[in-house]
Structure prediction request, 568 residues.
Amino acid sequence: MAISEVASPLLGDGGRSDYVDDTVDFRGCPAIRSKSGGWKSSLFIIGVEVSERFAYYGIASNLISYLTGPLHQSNAVAAANVNVWQGVSAMLPLLGAFVADAYLGRYRTILISSMLYILGLTCLTISTILPPGSNGHSGRSAWLPLPEFQVAFFFFSLYLAAIGAGGHKPCTQAFGADQFDESSPLEQMPKNSFFNWWYFGLWSGSLVSMVTVNYIQEYLGWGYGYGITCLSMGLSLAVFLIGTFTYRFKQSQEGSPFTSIVQVLVAAVRRSQWPIEESEHDRGATRQFRAALPLNPNCSFPSKRNNWTVCSVEQVEEVKGVLRLFPIWASCLMYAVFFSQSSTFFTKQGSTMDRKISSSFLVPPASLQCFIGISVVLFIPIYDQVLVPIARSYTGVPSGITLLQRIGTGLFFSILSMVVAALVELKRLNVAKDSGLVDFPAVTLPISIWWLLPQYILFGVSEAFTMVGLQEFFYDQMPNTLLSMGIAIYLSIFGVGSFLSGFLISLIEKLSSATSGGSWFSTNLNKAHLDYFYWLLAGLSILGLCVYVFFAQSYIYRNNYPSSKDGY
Prediction:
């Protein structure tokens, strides 16, 4: 998977074919293929993502520790708050994508959202260094209660950063993919590799953050940890601006693409009962969508032809293409619920286990998430360099296997990860019981934290398949005017999944607390039953995978991707 610039062929027409259609450079002139875009531009954008993910995971990966530490929240309340924040962070890209696709464009949206992101992180840093603070020692008991104003300011800062991320996330990846011309055979395969390298860069930044920032937060102070994330976002903005002179900018069409979608829906509803002049050629389309068919000239209804009564076939096909994505979106929600656990209960599990590497060094429990990143960083080059060429030789598909097959493979690995997590949690509970430490939650259990390693590795492999597949799928299958929205819809899976996870946790907490067995999420994890919760998620994930396969088998790709009519 060598990263090399896509070379333009020698042209004999004065270089006119070297221009990229519907694309301009930073000066507003038609973009020249050999002088703009490709890997030279996308590497800047991948660098932006590395820095942004460093900042984001500096917050997300250890947020539950701050909530249960300085803020003294219970495990269930803290996990619910983390899920809500992650859910909001993943849903806000829908708004960011709307603004980008309809009004500002991706470049301006990235600039503005980056500034909001930096402002949010600055406020977050200030909120954690305001007195009263800690007494200088680690441990929950060391933290003094925070005043209500400081708590409110912390959450305000947290959600301000989420607003910045909401504009940054969908636009940066879509803007990076824009640097490759999908109509050019020379740039199609590098574009497929871009999504792999994008996720490689994403986890590279996340991995460094989990190793360094989590340690700084745990042992040097939360203010230092959040301050570093602020500096990282500043670096992200600087890298993005430096690359401006190399970027390609897609020209936007007149009018909002969202208006076009609403016009089709309104026209379909308004004309659902109107008489239609239907020819033999039109009948198939009539049964699917009436918005593009001509009015019957004998119709007594007003027959003024405008975009709110009659839409073009292209408009209708675009809307149908967007609606066909919904079953895939919905069937991946259980994966998003599973995804939420790595930064909540996986971390709390590790906090009860033996974390010693040496007599003086303890592994921060949140840092174990770095093995997800290590799995991704190691697996993606193997996948792109070895597995894809082998699979391509058998299937003839440029990406080796189809996008939906890739996503489905990752869903299967996520189920394996959850099953392993349930078995390891059962082992941990048995150790607590056998050691007589059930009633002593503050005492470290005589079981190594490395028992959690297999579930993190399987989690990482599932991400390498599913997350990259979802990103490329929702970008590739959206209309050209809604590419940012495609990334936002992919991210919204994890927003809704986080909300579902929070709802599920709250419901189980309420029901299980009323039983003799006690809460599944007891503050004393030695009395909790996270294993029951993991088994429940594994069962629901199996059901979700079955639903996914059902819809994936009937999906037909846009632009005849990959090479056959069969979607899966």
About this structure: Residues 15 and 304 are 46 Å apart (CA to CA). The first strand starts at residue 19 and ends at 24. The longest helix spans residues 185-219. The chain has 18 helices and five strands.
